[in-house]
From TrEMBL:
Family: Belongs to the aminoglycoside phosphotransferase family.
Pfam family, one: APH
Sorted UniProt keywords: Antibiotic resistance, ATP-binding, Kinase, Magnesium, Metal-binding, Nucleotide-binding, Transferase
InterPro entries linked to this entry: Aminoglycoside_PTrfase, Kan/Strep_kinase, Kinase-like_dom_sf
Residues involved in Mg(2+) binding: 170, 184
Residues of the Aminoglycoside phosphotransferase domain: 51-231
Gene Ontology terms: biological process: response to antibiotic
Catalytic residues in the record: 165 (proton acceptor)
SUPFAM superfamilies listed in its UniProt record: Protein kinase-like (PK-like)
GO molecular function: ATP binding; kinase activity; metal ion binding; phosphotransferase activity, alcohol group as acceptor
Keyword match Kinase: yes
Name assigned to this protein: Kanamycin kinase
Length: 239
């Protein structure tokens, strides 16, 4: 996943959804998913259908979470046999991996933002699940065979409503240098907080290089738990 640096072909459906607004590509991934920003305050996501998550599921999660924490407000979503799309109101801020961000600020705010997300979303009221058993079940549906060791998770430290894809690009940072919101919540659900922390920490290596993993965990406000970090990073990589 990355910020486009070359011209991007705009799908016909995106042009239709833009309704004449100017489009700027802001994100693409290896599966062909694209995200565009419009000049009238919207973001349009367009992606091939997959078995992993759906925009319908993400829309449900956003509509639930928006009452508690800064996430995009869904304006419309739909799909056909091949693709899905979703239009949301834009949030203030830029991605933590935007070239304008320095690593130290980004890592700090991703950690702080993740802790704020976990503290804000009410576990008891959350209708979605991202526990280890559910993730293992979903992997089986997708034909992924997991090593036996991954079927024996560490005891839960603290149940929270997890982001589900807490990689650092999915935190937004405002002009004041503070986190301003979260995006891409298609897998949001209840799980151990270390499931998110492990992924966020690991993703600092991909985006900023070695040496930032523990700084993110410190910004979150706890000490590293090496056993849980290792387990949830392996589970992420396997699924």
């Amino acid at each position: 996943m990355s910020i486009p640096v070359e011209d991007v072909a705009v799908p016909a459906r995106v042009l239709e959804l833009a309704r004449g607004a100017a489009l700027t590509p802001v994100w693409h991934n290896q599966d062909g998913g694209l995200t565009f920003r419009t000049d009238d305050g919207r973001h349009i996501k367009h992606t091939p259908r997959t078995l992993e998550t759906s925009f319908a599921g993400e829309a449900d999660r956003l509509e639930w979470a928006v009452a508690y924490t800064p996430v995009p407000r869904v304006l419309e979503h739909g799909g056909d046999d091949v693709h899905e799309w979703m239009v949301t109101a834009s949030l203030p801020g830029i991605s933590a991996v935007d070239p304008r961000m320095d690593a130290a600020t980004a890592v700090r705010e991703v950690g702080r933002g993740l802790r704020a997300l976990h503290d804000a979303l009410p576990v008891a009221d959350c209708p979605f699940e991202w526990t280890v058993p559910r993730r293992i079940e979903n992997a089986g549906i997708r034909g992924i065979h997991l090593p036996d060791a991954l079927r024996d998770a560490p005891p839960v430290d603290r149940l929270v409503v997890c982001h589900g894809d807490a990689c650092v690009p999915n935190t937004l940072i405002g002009d004041d240098g503070r986190w301003s919101g979260h995006v891409d919540l298609g897998a949001l659900g209840v799980g151990d907080r270390w499931a998110d922390i492990a992924v966020a920490s690991m993703s600092t290596v991909w985006n900023y290089g070695e040496g930032w993993e523990d700084a993110l965990i410190e910004a979150y406000g706890i000490q590293p738990d090496r056993e849980r970090l290792a387990y949830y990073q392996e589970l992420w990589n396997a699924t």
